[in-house]
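Regression test case RT-17, inverse folding.

Input:
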């Protein structure tokens, strides 16, 4: 008897996390259009962004490009 194993392939996504003026943590996934959520705590944010990613993947009909994380930079613009 031959056993067939289903391989589960993990997909990895970069997540940007910021804090808004009201103190909410806001997470977004640059490689998935419109994929973002917010929460008061980090743990809640991670659960919500995982759910948001899963929903976006269900809705995504086209292939998406996984971006390689390089770093981040903050820049000031005078207004």
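Golden output:
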């Amino acid at each position: 008897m031959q056993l067939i194993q289903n391989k589960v392939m993990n997909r990895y996504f970069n997540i940007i996390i910021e804090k808004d003026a009201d103190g909410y943590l806001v997470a977004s996934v640059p490689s998935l259009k419109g994929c973002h959520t917010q929460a008061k705590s980090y743990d809640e944010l991670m659960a919500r962004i995982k759910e948001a990613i899963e929903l976006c993947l269900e809705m995504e009909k086209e292939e998406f490009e996984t971006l390689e994380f390089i770093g981040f930079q903050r820049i000031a613009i005078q207004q």
